[in-house]
Amino acid sequence: MPKEKPLFYDHRSMLKERVGVAGVRSIDLVRLSKRLEKAQAKLKLAAADGSVGWLTVPERRADCREVKSLARKMSAGLKTLVVIGIGGSDLGAKTLVRALKPASRGLDVRFVGSNTDPEEIADLLRTVDLKTALLNVVSKSGGTIEPMSTFLLLRDRLMRRVGRKSHARQVVATTDRTSGVLRTIADREGYATLPVPDDVGGRFSVLTPVGLFPAACAGIAVDGLLRGAVEVRDSFLSTSVGRNDALNFAGLHYLGYARRGQRITVLMPYAARLDLLSSWFRQLWGESLGKEINVDGRIVGHGLTPVAALGATDQHSQIQLYNEGPFDKMITFIEVGRMREDFSLPNPFPDLEGVSYLAGKSFGEILRAERRATAMALEDNGRPNGVLHIPEISPETVGGLMTFLMLSTAVMAELLDVNAYNQPGVEKGKRIISALLGRKGFKL
Ligand code: PA5
C-alpha cells in the first residue's frame, strides 16, 4: 500500500472560482509566486545554516534522548505530572496531551500556572496528592509571574508533604541553560533541569523539551512527533510553489487579508481531541503576526485575529455568523480520515425515519458528513474555506500538523514583512505587572 501523506491542504473553496467575490483569484495566487518562492528560499537557507532554531529542532537528538530518559527516571512510582507554564511554555504540551495521551500509559497530566486564579490552584491541590506528583515548571525567561508564583506555592506545599530534602526529587525545571531566576533556583535546590534552546521562541518550542517532556511523561511516542515534523518540513522545503500546501495556505490568507480585508482566521478541527490545537494556533498566529511595525521599523499595524472553533460543536454556535455575518473571515477545517475508536449505530426504531436513517452509520462518518455539510453551506454563501486533511490522529500527524502551521506562520510573516519571533506587546505588559507589584528596578 502506498504510504499515506501525513497531511494535505484542499484550498479549492478559498478561490473566487468556487465561492465568488470573497474568494481569492487563482491568478493572484500565481502572481504571488515570486514572493512565496523568496519566503521558501529564506526558510531553506535558515534550515541549512541553523539561523532559525525551531526549523532544526527535530534533529537535536541529544535533547530528545535526555527528555526520554529523564521522563522515565522521574516518573517512576509517581501518578501525576503537574505542568506549570503559560503561553508558549504550556499551550503546545496541552495540545499534545489532549490529542495523544494513551489511556493506559503514562502519568495523568494536569496543567496549572497559566492563570493566577487561586480557585483554580485550590482545585488542583484538592484533587492531586503531591506525594505522588512530579512538578514540571516551564519558563524560558524564568521570571514570568503566573507560572513562577504558582510554582512557589506548589513547591511549598510539596515540601510540606514530602519534606524539604526529598522535594527536589519531584521537580523538573525547563528553562534557559544559563540565565533567569528559575535557573538560579534550580541550581541552588538541585532540581533536574531541561533546556529551552535559546534560539527557539516560546510559541515555536513545542518540539523542544518544553512540549516533549510532558508528552513523554504522558506516554506519548515523542519520536513519532519528530518524524512527522521532519516529513512535513522537508516536503515544504523541497516542494515547488503551486504544489506546496503551506505556501498556498499562507499565500491565500495573505491575499484574503491584504486584498479583501479578511482579518479573521478561524481554525475549526472536526475532532474533540484537537480542540486545544486551535488554542495553540491562536497564540502562534496572533503573537507572531500581530505587529505594530515591520522589519524596517515602519508602522504597519498588521495582524489577523485567530479564532478557535470546534466542529461539530460550533455548528450550533458560530456557524450562523460564519454563514451570514460580515465577509471578514477565512475558515480552515481539519478533517481526520479515520478515528482511532468508533461505534456503529444500532437501529432500535426502524419505523421512525427521524432516527432510523442513522442505522449502521459510524460516528466518524457522521462527523465527516457534518464537516462537508458546513463547507458546502459556506461555499453556497460565498464564504472562503479550506480543509487540512490528516489520515488519523497520531504522533506523526500531530507533529506534522503543528509543523505545517508553524511553517505557514513563518511564510505569512515574510509576506507581511514582520518579525514572527518577537512579542514586544507581551513584554510591555510583563514590565507593567512587575512595576505594579513593586519589583525593584521596574517603574510605571
Ligand atoms: O511565545 C512566547 O514567547 C510567549 O508566549 C512566552 O511563551 C510566554 O510569555 C511565557 O514566557 P516564559 O516561558 O518566559 O515564561
Key words describing this protein structure:
444 residues; alpha/beta; Rossmann fold; 5-stranded mixed β-sheet; 5-stranded parallel β-sheet; 19 helices; 14% strand; binds 5-phosphoarabinonic acid; glucose-6-phosphate isomerase activity; gluconeogenesis; isomerase; EC 5.3.1.9; SIS_PGI_2
Itemize the secondary structure elements and their pairings.
Elements lengths: L7 E3 L5 H4 L6 H6 L1 H17 L3 H4 L4 H15 L4 E5 L6 H10 L7 E5 L5 H10 L5 E7 L5 H18 L1 H4 L3 E5 L5 H9 L2 E4 L13 H9 L4 H17 L6 H16 L3 E6 L5 H15 L1 E3 L5 E4 L2 E4 L10 H6 L4 E8 L16 H4 L6 H18 L4 E6 L4 H22 L7 H13 L8
Parallel strand pairs: 2-3, 2-4, 4-5, 5-6, 7-10, 7-11, 11-12
Antiparallel strand pairs: 1-12, 8-9
Helix pairs in contact: 3-18, 5-11, 6-11, 6-14, 12-18, 13-18, 14-18
Low-pLDDT ranges: none
Number of helices: 19
The CATH superfamily of the largest domain bears the name Glucose-6-phosphate isomerase like protein, domain 1
Q: How many structurally independent domains?
A: 2
3D shape: globular
Strand elements, count: 12
Q: Which ligands, by name, code or SMILES, are bound? A: 5-phosphoarabinonic acid
CATH architecture of the largest domain: 3-Layer(aba) Sandwich
For the record, give the distance between the C-alpha atoms at the N and C termini, rounded to a whole number. Answer: 64 Å
- Main pleated-sheet profile: 5 strands, mixed
> What is the CATH third-level topology name of the largest domain?
Rossmann fold
Amount of beta strand: 5-15%
CATH class of the largest domain: Alpha Beta
Strand order in space, largest sheet:
1-12-11-7-10
Average residue pLDDT:
96
In helices, the fraction of residues equals 40-55%
Q: What is the radius of gyration computed over CA atoms, rounded to a whole number of angstroms?
A: 23 Å
Instruction: Quickly give the structural class.
Output: alpha/beta
Keywords: Cytoplasm, Gluconeogenesis, Glycolysis, Isomerase
EC number: 5.3.1.9
Subcellular location: Cytoplasm
Protein name: Glucose-6-phosphate isomerase
